[in-house]
Every structure is written in C-alpha cells, then in structure tokens.
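Batch queue: ligand-bound targets. Current item pairs a single chain with flavin mononucleotide. No template structures supplied; prediction is de novo from sequence plus SMILES. Inputs echoed for audit trail.
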Amino acid sequence: MSRPPAHDPAHFRKVLGSYPTGVTIVTAMDEGRPVGLAVGTFTSVSLDPPLVAFLPDRKSRSWPAIEKAGVFCANVVGDHQEHVCAVFASKLEDKFAEVEWEPSPSTGSPMIAGCVAWLDCRVEVVHEAGDHWIVIGRVTELDVANDDAGPLLFFKGGYGRFSP
Ligand SMILES: Cc1cc2nc3c(=O)[nH]c(=O)nc-3n(C[C@H](O)[C@H](O)[C@H](O)COP(=O)(O)O)c2cc1C
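Prediction returned. Tokens below.
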C-alpha cells in the first residue's frame, strides 16, 4: 500500500494529530495591552535550570509582542475552559474582552482565572525551526492554581478530558 510522503501537509497533520497534547495559553503584556495565544506545543524541558518551551507559528500575531515583552505566563487550560481555548486560538482583536485575569506575581503577565496551573517565565532563547520558532523559557515562579480541574486535551482534531 502506498503511503503519502512526509511533506504531505494533510498526512503530517493527521499523524501528528494522533499524538494527544494538553492546551496552554501563553500570555504577555504589550505596552499595557494583554496578548496571548493557545498552544499545544508547551512542554517541560529542564529541571536544573528550570526550563520550559513552546513553539509559536511564524504567522502568530501574538508572538512578536510576547518576544518584545521578553517574559510570558503559560496558563494550563482546564477541561471546563474549551470556550476560553477557542478565543485564544482565534484572531480576535481583543481576546481578553470576556476573560477574567490578573497580573502574574513575577512577570506581570496575564494569569487567566480558572486555569489548572500557571508558570511565569523569562524568554531564555529562541531557535528557528521551519515554519515555527522554538521558544525556551526560564521559569521564575509557578504554581498549581486549580487542583480540582482536569486538563483540556486535544486529540485527532477534537477536545476531550482525561480520565485515569
Ligand atoms: C489545540 C490547539 C493547539 C495549538 N497549538 C499551537 C502551537 O503550538 N503554536 C501555534 O503557533 N499555534 C497553535 N495553535 C493555533 C493558534 O492558537 C492560532 O493560530 C491563534 O489564532 C494564534 O493567535 P495569534 O495570531 O494571536 O498568535 C493551536 C490551536 C489549538 C486549538
């Protein structure tokens, strides 16, 4: 049976979509204006020093503002927040219009109410990676915010929840 080549975008998306991810909203302040985007690429990188990473698309409108800020807050989205995820996965002009948030303790980036956990970070290094960037962040402060909430998961193009 013939298999589509690795450079076939539909095939690449289908295969990578069979790897489940959580959803994180990466936020920052841009000259007093909150900005942010939903990502499935957030991951833990290193314990010592404490490093995390996410991969913004080169077409992301929020990333240049986050890069300019030099700091960000990664908000782990709960399974009760699919509507919040949809807002931050959109190109809406003001994604924070209907979202409750407060400044994070260490970087002052938006911490979104109801999220499972948050990680305050400083941009450590940015690597080029095809049509994305690999952003490494040094964690300055972090906590679990909502221990009762499960994570929102993304798998095969749809949302779901975790059950042990
Ligand atoms: C589950 C999920 C995961 C996503 N993961 C990423 C990602 O890792 N990187 C990225 O740049 N966009 C990702 N997106 C798409 C962005 O959220 C979307 O393009 C958004 O409009 C970007 O907003 P911006 O242009 O304000 O940066 C994801 C969307 C969803 C729904």
